[in-house]
Amino acid sequence: MKFVLSSLVMNIPNAVTGETLTTQQKYQNILKQAVLAEELGFDAYGIGERHGAPFLSSSPPVVLTAIAAKTSRIRLLTTVTVLSVLDPVRVAEDYATLDHLSGGRLELIIGKGNDPRHYPLFGITEEEQWDSLAERYALLKQLWNEEEVTWEGRYRSPLHQVTTQPRPYQASIPVWHGSASSTLSTELAAKYGEPIFSSNTFHPQAKYKALIDHYRERLAHYGHDPKNAVVGAGGGSLYLADTSEEAVKRFRPYYDAFHSTASSKHNKTPFKDLDDNLANGPILVGSADFVIEKILNYHKAYGHQVLSIGVDGLTEAEQHEQLERFAKDVIPVLRREIPSTVWSTNPSVLQQGEVIVSSR
């Protein structure tokens, strides 16, 4: 299994100390997270996209570019890019630039997002989100794969013989499809034969398993071999301690603080509280043995090769502690237990006419 540390750059008062970081302090905290993740052997670092409090992640390509400058190996993911509301020309330019500045370490996870506040900001309705996502992604692929693009659609003005600059550094920037709530996302991924990344955060296992199963079924429909399906999944928040009782006690104030925010209501989680999530959901809070057992249980259902975790909301010292514990006590076991073909070679890049093939 491969491992991603990801963040939505959530910035709320610390539930235990009451400390509130300034915006500048929070961004510096994110940079430290990414550097530490690379030092501890994580495979990727991801920045999500939100357009409202308490999140400061409205510009993932800018944040990831800053991370690229401070790291050298770790892959850089968008978790997710809310392509349903973005101009594909701007996306093509911004992320091709980041691809160059990172030396070909970029991978996009695209989706429609789960926060309805972004629709009025960008001029589409929530009812249009799936059609918008499909159209914008088709154009983005065309802009990255072709030159002199002529195009006409519904969600932006026509293009005539447009070649976006810069061209991507990688021969093909890998794209994953974020999947949280609808078979429309898994359908789009299957159509293109591209991997999915299940949110696996706010609902019971059965809901996400149904979407992943649908993805594999539709891969076959579109002529792709389901045996080659590549699946990633989130794990929600992480908190480890020597015993599960201690971990739950220490994490409970953080869980309650986030779930009392207005933004958490957009997730529409059925879990009543932390105990319900621990028993019936994916949250990774407990001893190392408990967390390993839960991840293995979810892998049996999903067959995923990549796991994403997050530590936002904790103090910086606790973030450091949790990531070190996870790297020492959990990652080595799961690397042995769960094979992964993802990221088995260097990213594919175009370097002065030389083609180096395959990032997977």
UniProtKB/TrEMBL annotation:
Keywords in alphabetical order: Monooxygenase, Oxidoreductase
Limits of the Luciferase-like domain: 11-304
UniProt name for this protein: LLM class flavin-dependent oxidoreductase
InterPro entries: Bact_Lucif_Oxidored (IPR050766), Luciferase-like_dom (IPR011251), Luciferase-like_sf (IPR036661)
Lineage: superkingdom: Bacteria
Pfam families, A to Z: Bac_luciferase
